[in-house]
Amino acid sequence: MDKTLKYQAAIKTVIQSYIEYYYKESPLRIQTIFDDNNGHYILIHLGWQDDQWTYGIPLHLDIIADKIWIQRNQTEVELEEELLELGVLEEDMIIGFYTTDMAKVQC
C-alpha cells in the first residue's frame, strides 16, 4: 500500500475510534473533515452542553511531505502511540505545535 494512503487510513482510524469512545453519548454534534486531496484531517465538536454553547477542534492532523503533522491534540489520547500501532513510522510523525528546533524539521 502506498505510504500516503496508509497514513490517511491510520489517521481516519484514530479519529473514528476517538469519536466512538469519547462522544458515544455526548450531546455535541461531531464533524470530521477528511480532505485526502490536501492532507487535512480535523475533528470538530459543537453544540449545547449544560446550557453553554461549545465549539472546539480537539484534533487536527495534516500530511505534509509524506509525514504526519500533529497540529493540535487537545485530547487525552496518545496519538503518537496509536499511530505507531497502525504502522506509522516514528520518524514520520511531527508535533507541529512544537518549535522548529523541537520538531527537528524545516518546512
What are the main properties of this structure?
107 residues; alpha+beta; 29% helix
Topology summary:
Layout: H1 3-22, E1 29-35, E2 40-49, E3 52-64, E4 67-73, H2 79-85, E5 93-95, H3 100-103
Task: Give the gist of this structure.
The protein is an alpha+beta fold.
Mass-distribution shape: elongated
Radius of gyration: 14 Å
The parts where pLDDT drops under 50 for at least 5 residues are: none
Element order: H for helix, E for strand: HEEEEHEH
Strand content: 35-45%
Distance between the termini: 26 Å
How many individual β-strands? Answer: 5
Q: How are the strands of the largest sheet arranged?
A: 1-2-3-4-5
The overall average pLDDT, rounded, is 90
Describe this structure in words.
Strand 4, helix 2 (79-85) and strand 5 form a beta-alpha-beta unit. The chain is α+β, with helices and mostly antiparallel strands and 107 residues long. The chain contains 3 helices and 5 strands. 15% of the residues are buried. The chain has helices at residues 3-22, 79-85, 100-103, and strands spanning 29-35, 40-49, 52-64, 67-73, 93-95. Strands 1-2-3-4-5 form a 5-stranded mixed sheet, with helices on one face. The model has no long low-confidence stretch (mean pLDDT 90).
